[in-house]
UniProtKB/TrEMBL annotation:
Entry-linked Pfam families: FtsX (PF02687)
Intracellular or extracellular location(s): Cell membrane
Transmembrane domains' residue ranges: 18-40, 60-80, 109-131, 151-174, 195-213, 225-247, 279-300, 504-526, 560-579, 591-612
Keyword Transport appears in the UniProt entry: yes
Protein name: ABC transporter (Permease) efflux of cationic peptides
ABC3 transporter permease C-terminal domain location: 63-176
Amino acid sequence: MTFLQFAYNNVTRNKRAYLAFFLSSAFSVLIFFTFAMFLFHPALKEGYLNNIARKGLTAAEWMIFVFSFLFVLYSVNAFLKSRNKEFGILLMQGITPGQLRKLITAENMIIGVMSIAAGIIGGVIFSKTFFTVGAYILEMDALPLYMPWKALGITAGGFLLLFFLLSQFTILFVRSNTVIKLIKGTDKVKPEPKPSVLLSLFGIACLCGGYGMVLKGNVHGTEPFIILLLTVIGTYFFFSQSSIWILRALKKWKAFYLRGKNVIWVSDLVYRLKDNARLFFIVSIISAVAFTATGVLAMYKATVGAEESAYEMEYISYSDNPKEQTHLKDIEHELKSHGFAYKKDKIDVSYIRYQEGDTVPPVYMISKSDVSKYFHVKLNGLKNDEAVYFPGTYDRNLKNVAPDQLKLLNQKGEPSDQKLSVKEVKKPLISLNAIIAVNDQTFDQFKSLGDKASLYGYSYDHWKDSLEFSQSLKNEIYGNYIDVHSDFASKAGTYYDTVQLPSLSLFIGLFIAIVFFVAAASFLYFRLFTDLDEDRERYRSLAKIGLSEREMSQSVTIQLAILFFFPFVIAVMHTLFALRTMAVEGYSDIAGPLSLTIGGFFIFQLLFFLAVRSSYLKKMNK
């Protein structure tokens, strides 16, 4: 038997240990490869949205690769720990450190090549589905299949290098131990964990402090950083100290602790929580990041839709604008040169501000007759002191977008005696700003309070095709945002900001979150099967004194359920409080996206738990 055959047999005969590592690594390769195929697709070479998509996909590729590095490092280290006795025996039999290094490198490269091959094959199989879903979400034209040589080369080369470098890192973990330590493995008698009451209370206090800051609302400035710091510190001490303290307190509750199998799983769980405290901390934080990122993106996409304004392009010029005619010529030149037949409207408005607490939001005041003429909205029975409020497309989903009464300011920004009662809040008319419509008499009376301005509206078909030059016009009009006397918006730009960009973020973020969550679940799998031999011995001893197979299964199920869902519940709590800030900021619908996000991850976690439980019990019953 050659040395390479020896390494191959070690891999194939340790399928149990390598299975989760192989599948998770293959999944990371699959996501990386499909993103790379999307990134280097010939159809994404041109276009404003395509450029942004390429940048987002490139950032996602780096995130996946860096996380894969850390994930594989942890996984290989867990495998080596479970094989300490094997390495100790090999060293006693005369294997040299160089040969041991060669063995570990060969094993890692074998599993790495298999993962890369499986990931690439899976990526090719699912590429058409991935392209279809991606093009649908991003609202792009259908993406045809192509031969992704560049994506294949980068994926294979990058992950081969990753597995090789990590095999060199992991050798250090083995070489740092003596032969005696390796042979002893994890057979040392563990003392009962004794948590610190002070640190236990400190961890709970940190979590309560972070949650309390969220509940009081108005999270601004340095508060998000403080909340994040308190949550991370509190989570670590909660798993490493508080949870063990709670279990030890539970052991003192004799009526519960000495009832049936409770004495077994509670005692075992104390040791498991202590041994896996760092792992649970990592899993809960990673899961919370995945839940929160996916929830925020889903919430934003659900609440900020593609509400269309009346015009495909809007330009407003204030009274002191010296570049009005230049900008209008540029807008019309771009529309004509790109083949758009347009209709142009000019509306007289008054740019006015009103007092709302400590803020002075701006609105455009328009007469009732102009609203009817240009926007085809009839406003009946509008009295002299009444107004109809039309929010801008960007703030239409926020709560309480209009006060009951508008206290108007004069041009100097001072309070005036003029007030308007908001009769009704309707759908947006334009993207640039909110509009208040008043009857013609009130408009003539109040328009001098604000700055006289002209709103130019351009209507044309196929507006989605105007994104690229619309963004160029926007950059030209605003320049460096110094001494600006006009405002500009396009339906294509608004649609890009409120629909396409969130869709792109959701598309990328969802897959990254799934990678994170799969890795988090795999961490638990690795740890369980690392301790399998030790658990076998313990339950074999308990069986000799009368523990039945059914009682063992129930005890294992309770422990596994706590190990799988305890970090999950903490991550869900973190997510709920994180997304609570979105509700405070005014997003009207968080329950739907949040339920969908948490529900999806819970189903995945439940299926993974059932599969691991079945496999674990089979191994235990042997």
